[in-house]
Amino acid sequence: MDTDVLVVGGGPVGLMLAAELRTGGARVVVLERLKEPSGHSRAFRMQARMLDVLDQRGLLDRFTDGNRTWPKAHFAGLEPLLDFGHLRNEHPYALLIPQARTEQLLEEHTRALGVDIRRGHAVTAVEDTGDGVRCEVETDEGRHSLTASYLVGCDGGRSTVRKLAGIGFTGSDPTVSALLADVELADPSQLPNGVPGTMRTPHGLLMAISLQPGVTRILTTEFVPPDPATARSEVTLDELRATVRRISGLDVDMDRPRWLSRFTDTTRLADTYRSGRVLLAGDAAHVHFPIGAQGLNLGLQDAVNLGWKLAATVTGRAPDGLLDSYGAERRPVAERVLRETRVQLLLMSPDPKVDPLREVFSELLAMPEVNSRLAHEITGLDIRYQLPEGRYTHDLLGCPCPPLKPGPGDGVRALLRAGRGALLVPDTRPGVARAAEGHSGRVGTVPAGEGPGLLLRPDGHVAWVDPGDDTPADDVLADLTDALRRWFGDPAPTGTPRPPTSRNG
Ligand SMILES: Cc1cc2nc3c(=O)[nH]c(=O)nc-3n(C[C@H](O)[C@H](O)[C@H](O)COP(=O)(O)OP(=O)(O)OC[C@H]3O[C@@H](n4cnc5c(N)ncnc54)[C@H](O)[C@@H]3O)c2cc1C
Predict the structure, then answer these.
(1) CATH architecture, domain defined by 387-505
(2) Which residues of the chain are modeled with pLDDT < 50?
(3) 264 in ligand 1 pocket by Cβ < 6 Å?
(4) 56 burial class (0-12, 13-18, 19+ CB within 10 angstroms)?
(5) What is the pLDDT of residues 370-400, one digit of tens each?
(6) Measuring from atom 30 of ligand 1, which residue has the nearest CA?
(7) The CATH number of 177-264 is which of 3.30.70.2450, 2.40.110.10, 3.30.505.50, 3.40.50.150?
(8) Is the CB of 42 inside a 6 Å radius of any atom of ligand 1?
């Protein structure tokens, strides 16, 4: 094999996945069609759950440097806003960061880990050979083929890999036509709701967001399916002006476009995230209307879920079923995001029949429990993977790690950054540390003080919880031993702690 894993697509999800795989000890090659990054930014918001993950990877300071944080977000353009101040996590806010900057930082991180990123390399064919994968690559110099144990399509919503692997993409066709334009406004006060601001009129939606001094992002949505004759054509400034006029009745003076693009509410989910040795992650696996700023965040968390599992698989350390838990855990998360973005778009429809529904939703959003539930949903903090239950179950099982005190928190971050699991050992039950001795290459222990006993997987999700002091120690240890085997495989024989496997290249 030329490498362990071929990652097709060097967008944000492909880059994040490559870094996670490399951290887990796999050899990785990223194949990216574009010779240079486009420099354009679709996404601008990084959600709270991803900020915790970036912190666990030692990357958060680089992402926050020079970028603003924001404590609220809208749901379907309604008031009151979702309040992030009550989120149950370490970084309870959103980070406003252009996607181009996210990609640049991820590429730096991935290259620093030694990943081979090949730009100007387009994948045109993929074959699962049973014991590996072969793919055809097209470059300016011609065609060549590459082999690997596994291949992951992170090649966006129109994924070539998904189509070549014959994986269905089930869902609904577009019902709305939307434009994105980064332009200069001669006079922002021409927009009655200002910048930032949203107009919902009987003809559609008009949103304006300030991107940088002098540059405004205009987003228009008309609730009619795209015209097939123009669906793939370049957007012109005249088309944008006419669309803004149709929606708002205003002649807004706009010029010097930096970027003009189309998008829709096509909503689709891959029928499976794995077919043999080919897997999917990010937009290649799920697409939806970009309301609530969730697609990129969803895809990055696919990468964080898949990376350690696939690395363990290709380095021969994975217990049975580990790789299949990727689709089993992540596909339901995407299903919920697709449902909730459909709800938001319905609520934003210009149809006056929706107005009473909007009023009811506004009243519901004023209720702290509802506001908090939706805030946790769109930030990805409500994720609870359905892990197989052990002898004891707990509300935290499958959830992201709860906020920790600085001492244990630092210990956990250091372990997760190295691609290892973390076992938090409470003062009251020092014996649990012994259960992890045979896994010491893959799981490190951290004194938890008075905090709860927790086992965290490398993706920061809780895989075991100490049920409490009144449970017999032997039962607790047996439960922990099962969880360690399920996620990290059989222990090494006593006295020979297994080092993490790492291959170069
Ligand atoms: C208007 C708008 C606003 C958005 N705002 C947000 C937001 O605020 N927050 C958020 O979370 N999400 C947002 N999103 C969604 C987000 O932009 C996407 O979910 C994200 O880009 C998906 O990343 P990806 O890496 O999966 O795919 P992509 O970003 O599409 O990257 C795929 C990569 O694969 C490469 N590629 C494709 N085919 C091949 C091939 N055959 N061989 C080699 N390389 C190939 C492409 O060149 C590309 O670099 C928004 C989307 C839109 C349209």
Answers:
(1) 3-Layer(aba) Sandwich (3.40)
(2) 497-502, 504-505
(3) no
(4) buried
(5) 999 999 999 999 999 999 877 888 899 999 9
(6) 156
(7) 3.30.70.2450
(8) yes
